[in-house]
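Technical annex B. To support the medicinal chemistry partners, we prepared a structural model of the target in complex with NDP, based solely on the information shown next.
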Amino acid sequence: MLKHSKKIAVAGGGSWATANIKMLADNIIEKEIFWWMRNGDAAEYIRNYGHNPNYLSSVEIKIPAQNISTDLKTTIKAADFVLLNVPAAFLKEALQGVEPADLEGKYIVSAIKGIVPDENKIIAEFMHDTFRVPLQNILVISGPCHAEEVALEKLSYLTIASQNVELATEFAGMLNTRYIKTVVSDDIYGTEYGAVLKNVYAIASGICHGVGYGDNFQSVLISNAIRELERFVAVVHPIDRDIKESAYLGDLLVTAYSQFSRNRTFGNMIGKGYTVKSAQLEMNMIAEGYYAVNCLHQVNKQYQVEMPICEAVYAILYKKSSPVFEMQKLAEKLS
Ligand SMILES: NC(=O)C1=CN([C@@H]2O[C@H](COP(=O)(O)OP(=O)(O)OC[C@H]3O[C@@H](n4cnc5c(N)ncnc54)[C@H](OP(=O)(O)O)[C@@H]3O)[C@@H](O)[C@H]2O)C=CC1
Ligand SMILES: O=C(CO)COP(=O)(O)O
């Protein structure tokens, strides 16, 4: 029996938001789902036809038309759980006009895998510091799970992290379905930073492929990436964690190897000689790692962790350094 109310608002109109709506609606626990997106035409289309025209358009949307809105404050007001699913780079913009009082008493669930630019904070920290949301009311959804495979109902595992493990367990219960299994964790920092870093490593993986390295090199890159990830999270939030768990290693592997990965696709284009702008235009989807690597570069000035893969990606994307040169330099540092 759930102790908390079952009114959930999903904020964001992209692929992962659409997949989250599907998982929540397919789960058998009775609940009311509300959906906010910025795109009025898409909202109207979904109300009329029950499908998102722009992302995962095959997914049937099974929530009432009147629960789909372009007014975020109204959507938030209706719910007890607010699931944030706007790319981190645009979160501040999306939350403009929302006051700490609007979120008082609400549970905030971040399904975002990114860092808030300028603030250089993971989502839990940002929501806690800016909107005064108690950490006990914050949850993070992560895990090796692509929206496209949720749409196909392929068996997937999610990690629900919160310092409030009881709350995480309750929320996990609202996501479980025939094709979704959930794991609960109390490591919000490791889960968030792990997800942010794996996006950068997937870009590195794509760049390597783009410049012509093969599977042999990529496996070395990824085994170095998990060690780099472990070093960083151990300094930022030192607790006893097993980096081989799905939320860390699993998430890295799926993003670095999958045909569906936005970050890998973006990296591949960069490796093949596209500029950042042209790769972004061509993709029409968001590669969070592009924004994250800049934030990580700033954050790591404080921690000084040895992060050669992140630094190579940063130099390529933000200093216009040549992908071939940076990968040759990186290759000398890997083991
Ligand atoms: N896709 C996946 O499999 C997974 C994604 N995630 C995370 O979910 C989050 C959302 O990603 P995802 O759903 O994949 O994104 P998509 O690339 O599918 O969609 C992009 C989303 O970003 C919005 N957007 C683009 N530009 C802007 C802008 N300038 N201002 C505000 N909103 C903008 C789009 O809105 P519009 O349509 O109106 O342009 C759309 O909702 C990311 O943090 C990602 O890392 C996490 C796990 C899995
Ligand atoms: O986080 C994700 C899957 O776990 C989505 O990012 P990618 O599309 O780059 O894999």
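Notes passed to the chemistry partners:
The chain has a mean pLDDT of 97.
The first strand starts at residue 7 and ends at 11.
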